[in-house]
Design brief:
299 residues, alpha+beta, Rossmann fold, Tumour Suppressor Smad4, 2 domains, 9-stranded antiparallel beta sheet, 24% helix
Amino acid sequence: MNVLCIFNPKAGGGKASKQLSHIKQLFIKYQINAEIVQTQYPHHGTEILAQKNINNYDALIAAGGDGSFFDLLNGYMKYHYNTPVPLGIIPVGTGNSLSRDVINNLKNNNLENFVKLIKLRHSKTFDIGKITTSQQVYYFVNMMGFGFTTDVTLTANKYKFFKSAAYIIGVLLNTLRLKTYPLEIEIDKQKQQVYNTFVTVSNSKYTGNDFLIAPHAKVNDGLLDVVIVNKISRLNLLKTFPKIFDGSYINSPYVNYQQVKKINFYSEQHKIISPDGEITGQLPVKIEVLPRAVSILSE
């Protein structure tokens, strides 16, 4: 079995580099012939994939976090979409949200379990989200957000050495400087003007590893789960936040939760988006689901 493994040594706040020898040993143990290419800068993984003939591989693997898989996915969708090759993840990042959809009832990120999945070649089809901005097209498998959620991601990136706790730090610090902004939302050609705090558009249930951001989401139901939180006080945000761990926050009167196939967002303010935790692109955006668009090695 031949695989291309794009390894991000800076994932997990740099802690991923310590896992490389272990990953090599696991490949040997399971008789997987892996070409390991290390990334050197942000989005290098997408560039690496653009230069490869993927007909030479039985699977394409991202060893890193959700951002590493984002680069793999975007490289595949942009340069190789007509070649049916399964994608996979070895989670050595900060959030590792995708790993929870790859292995059911995941208790810990035991890397050997993910290498076993590669060897077994068992995959399932996933929906993905397509984001069209004025300058670029992006694809995501977990979620994208903007507003407060992107601010949290920016802060969490500075505290990656705390692993998943970095996102909790991001929430607390950004609550102190909470603000709203005017936003136009378009669904089924119906437009709505609001003062918004944050938006998330999810394909899978979790973000930041432990945040159950979209409790009704399924990775292959042909729908995206949208969370819209408009004007909310700091106190009510702090009261609502703990409920995100079990998903019950969607019952709050401040939260609008719905499922869509397409949705558009516009704002006159400069709002950066964060697909799968990557800070890239900005409003306005058009978002749609691509049903069962990719195969991912999974249980």
